[in-house]
Structures are given as structure tokens and as C-alpha cells.
Write a structure and sequence with these properties.
Helices cover 28% and strands 31% of the residues. By secondary structure, the chain is an alpha+beta fold.
């Protein structure tokens, strides 16, 4: 190439934003980077991240009080909100995704609600002259729960009028998803207090001597049953379960151990399967909630993570950094590493993977999940053989013959067919329901209704079996369409409500992740 053309080519690269000929190197497992600002005016640290409910937009709050809204499909900034004068304390999309909420800890700003597609200001809520220390959408987005040092309460999100006044005062820093509970920071002694904001029933969490307060306080989304607290200046991080006991608010807890420095940001997946913590020790850890142990540790070398957010379906994890950038990871690829050395697994190998899926060390168990995911057809067949409730135990011809015999003229034949079919429940419930829909005769319809209505023994699972089953659901979630067919059967007929609910949630995540 002519030297002048070389210079023109390099100048063009610089004009496009300083790109270099070599492809950008991302940290291990990351799939893309979102970077705002420029060399002249670099973006400041990311403090908060929030996904829209459909996963198409990601909002980022930066240390300079800038809020940027990114289109996740293109990785470009869709718009930047008008700058705030005070530090922001909340950032959240409405459940419908049509509005974006910000809250500021200062006069004249308080809580602002913006049109999410355009960034146009819709309304402001005058919580108090000192602004809002915590705020979030509640009641399906119809109302906003806001708190300040002087109280606060619930406000109509459309009109801005106060609907209900809170009795909670002094230092509220987090609100539960239903808007009924608040976490407050109290002193003498230093403690956090979880209390009902309208009747002040409370339970305290004592902090160690010398601790300045929490660096992170985060409720689990939707249910609000779990509360993650990271201590300022320390690597200590605790996951509390908030529940009602004998009419009082109660807590139990589990430590999240492994970080070497302060946790600066955290995120729950919407289904509470995962918890992510971002630490100044240059790592992000993804914890399995079932075991409260790390499922993956993402090492970031010199990058310092400051915030995190899971996409609505849990398929992606966004992590914000001190340099103002944002990186995205595919969660399943990070958690479930795929082996490369096995072309077609043997029954013995799959038996070993199945055994490993019961491990209480998630990182070990998820290697087995990844191995199954790499062989979906063989895995689906193996899972069907392992999960007793999926076994029909009879040929299709026998099932159809017994269904026909439910309408036989002989009582003994009808009764024998009834008993044969009942013995195979719940694995054939889908077949029985289909037969009920097609049947026009009263006798077989009555028998089929009684069969399907009969309670099934739930068969208590031990801890290892429970882990195997839940991780089986995770593996099936990645296998389409064979995995989805099995998940549909588990959701419909599994005698364990927890397993049936997990399979149903996995099917819903499939839909959301297809959109992401």
C-alpha cells in the first residue's frame, strides 16, 4: 500500500474512535464491552446497573451522576439523562419497561420518573427537602416506595401524589420489592435494622466493631426474602433470609466466603438461582444459592469491578468497572464449561457425571452439567432413565389399550385398567390428560378425573438427590428442543413441587433468553 494511503487508513481508524488494527482482547469468558466517554473525557466509575424487563436496554449510573441507557443489541448508548446535581441512590426500570426511575439524595430532585424509550422526564416526586435515600417501583409499577431521613412512603407513580405515609425514619438505605420493609443504618451500637415501614416491627443485624457501615445492601428481586450485605472496608459478605416467625420479622444467614477485599456491587438473578458479587480484589464471583458456594470465579487482572446486574432471564451478567466500562458475560458458558475430549459419551461416563452433579462443590458439579450439555440427545435419554417419575413403565400400545378398557362392558376389565394406569402415575399424566380431553363417555371420563385428582406421594429427596435434580433442570434448560420437552414433563407431573416449579421457571427463562 502507498505510504500516503497508509497514513489515511490510520487516520480513519483514529477518527472512528482510536481503534487499532488488532481485535480487542476481552477478559476470559466476556462476550462484549460497552465503553462510554473518550480519551479526553473518560467515563467515571459505574455505581449501579439495571436491565429493562425485556433485556433490550441496560441503564448505567456513573460516579459523575451521569445515567446512560444502552441498547444491548448494538452496544451503543441510546441516550443520556439530563445530569443530576446530587448523588443518585436508585436506578430501576418499571415492570413494564416503559419508565425509568432515578432517586437523588438532595433538594429539588428527589425521585424522577423518565420515559424509558426516549429519556424524557415524565414526573417528579417531592419526597422531602433532603431528597430520597431509597426508592423503587411497587404494585406493578403503579406506585413508588420512597424513603428519606424524614420518612416518606408510597406515591402514585403517575401523579406524584403521596398515597401512604411511612413511620420509618433515620437512615433508610434499601427497600424490599413489595415496598413494605426497609433497611436502616443505626449507630450506638452500629447496626442495620430491617423493619416494616408502616408498623415498625423490626429485627437488627449487628455489625462488627470498627465497621463503618455496609458497602452493599441488596434485596432479592420479586420475593424480597433474601438480603445481601457487604461490609465497608472488609471482605465479609452475608446472605440473610428475611421471614416471618410467630408474627415477628426474623432472620437467618449464610456467609459468602472467598473475597479478599470489600464487595462493591452485587446482583441476584430474577429466579434467585444465582448471586453475583463484584469485589475490589479484581474478581467477580457467581454463587449458587442452593449451596451458598461459588460456582465460578471471574478473575479480572487489573480491572476493578464496581457493579453487577443479571439480565431478566439470567442468561447474561453485566459488570461495571472503575474505569467506566461495562463487560457482558454469558452465564451458562461461564458456569458450565464444555469438555472437548469426548465425542460420544459411554453409559459409564454419564453415570460418573450424574454422580458428580450431586457434589456440594458447584464448580465441580457444573463441569458435569457442561459435559451433559455438550451431548443433548444422549443426556436427555439418560435423564429420562434416571428420573423415575418420567418412566412410563409400559409400551404406548398398552397405555392406549388400558385407556380404551376404561369403557369396557366388564367391571373387572375396567377396574384392572384403572389400577394399571394408576400405578404408572405421575409419569403418564400428560397421556391421561390428553385422553380425558378426547373422551366423550361418562365412565372413562369419571375414572380419568379421579386418577388425576388423586394425591401423589412426594417421596422426600435427600440433599444429594435434590442437587442432582435441580442441576438436571439447569442442564435441560440449555438443550433445545429435547430439553424443553423434558422440562415440560417435569413441570407438569413431578411429584416434588419444588422441582416442578424449577422446571416451569426454566421454561420461562428460555423464553426470556431467546429475546436477549
Amino acid at each position: 500500500m502507498h505510504p500516503l494511503r497508509n497514513l489515511m487508513f490510520l487516520a480513519g481508524l483514529l477518527w472512528l474512535g482510536g481503534a487499532v488494527a488488532a481485535e480487542e482482547v476481552l477478559p476470559s469468558g466476556a462476550i462484549s464491552r460497552l465503553q462510554a466517554g473518550s480519551d479526553a473525557e473518560p467515563a467515571q466509575a459505574v455505581l449501579r446497573l439495571a436491565y429493562s424487563p425485556d433485556g433490550k436496554f441496560l441503564a448505567s449510573l456513573h460516579e459523575d451522576r451521569q445515567v446512560r441507557v444502552w441498547r444491548t443489541e448494538t452496544g451503543r448508548v441510546e441516550y443520556t439523562l439530563a445530569p443530576h446535581r446530587q448523588a443518585l441512590t436508585a436506578l430501576e426500570f418499571s415492570p413494564q419497561g416503559d419508565r425509568l426511575l432515578t432517586a437523588a439524595a438532595g433538594p429539588e430532585e428527589s425521585v424522577s420518573i423518565w420515559d424509558a424509550p426516549t429519556g424524557k422526564l415524565l414526573t417528579k416526586l417531592a419526597v422531602s427537602h433532603q431528597g430520597a435515600t431509597a426508592a423503587r417501583f411497587i404494585d406493578g409499577g403503579k406506585q413508588v416506595a420512597c424513603l428519606s431521613p424524614q420518612g416518606g412512603g408510597w406515591f402514585d407513580s403517575a401523579t406524584g401524589e403521596q398515597v401512604r405515609k411511612s413511620v420509618a425514619e433515620t437512615g433508610p438505605i434499601a427497600i424490599s420489592p413489595d415496598g413494605k420493609s426497609v433497611v436502616r443504618l443505626l449507630t450506638n451500637p452500629m447496626r442495620l435494622q430491617v423493619e416494616e415501614i408502616f408498623d415498625q416491627e423490626a429485627v437488627s443485624i449487628m455489625l462488627s466493631a470498627g465497621v463503618q457501615g455496609p458497602a452493599v445492601v441488596d434485596f432479592s428481586p420479586y420475593d424480597g426474602e433474601r438480603l445481601l450485605i457487604g461490609k465497608r472496608g472488609q471482605p465479609d459478605c452475608m446472605l440473610y433470609r428475611v421471614y416471618e416467625y410467630n408474627g415477628d420479622v426474623a432472620l437467618d444467614y449464610a456467609p459468602l466466603e472467598g473475597h479478599e477485599k470489600q464487595v462493591q456491587g452485587s446482583a441476584f438473578s430474577a429466579d434467585n438461582l444465582w448471586v453475583a458479587t463484584a469485589s475490589s480484589d479484581h474478581t467477580v464471583r457467581i454463587w449458587e444459592r442452593l449451596t451458598m458456594r461459588p460456582a465460578a470465579v471471574i478473575s479480572l487482572d487489573e480491572l476493578e469491578p464496581t457493579a453487577a446486574a443479571f439480565s431478566p432471564g439470567g442468561g447474561r451478567l453485566a459488570v461495571g468497572f472503575q474505569d467506566g466500562g461495562i463487560l457482558l458475560w454469558e452465564v451458562r458458558r461461564t458456569l458450565f464449561p464444555a469438555p472437548t475430549e469426548i465425542t460420544e459419551p459411554t453409559p459409564e461416563q454419564m453415570a460418573g457425571w450424574w454422580f458428580d452433579m450431586a457434589s456440594d462443590e458447584p464448580a465441580h458439579a457444573f463441569k458435569a452439567v457442561g459435559a451433559f450439555c455438550s451431548h443433548p440427545a444422549a443426556a436427555a435419554k439418560y435423564f429420562t432413565g434416571q428420573l423415575d417419575f418420567l418412566k412410563a413403565g409400559a409400551a404406548e400400545a398398552d397405555l392406549q389399550r388400558w385407556i380404551r378398557e376404561l369403557d369396557d362392558n366388564e367391571f373387572a376389565v375396567r377396574q384392572a385398567a384403572d389400577e394399571n394406569l394408576s400405578d404408572l402415575r405421575p409419569g403418564i399424566d400428560l397421556v391421561l390428560r390428553a385422553a380425558l380431553e378426547k373422551s366423550t363417555s361418562a365412565e372413562p371420563r369419571n375414572r380419568l378425573r379421579q386418577m388425576l385428582a388423586a394425591p401423589m406421594s412426594q417421596g422426600d429427596l435427600d440433599d444429594a438427590q435434590r442437587l442432582q435434580l435441580m442441576r438436571c433442570v439447569l442442564a435441560l434448560e440449555t438443550m433445545s428442543p429435547a430439553g424443553r420437552a423434558l422440562l415440560t414433563r417435569i413441570a407438569a407431573v413431578h411429584p416434588q413441587p419444588e422441582a416442578a416449579a424449577a422446571a416451569g421457571a426454566a421454561l420461562e427463562r428460555n423464553v426470556l433468553n431467546d429475546l436477549e
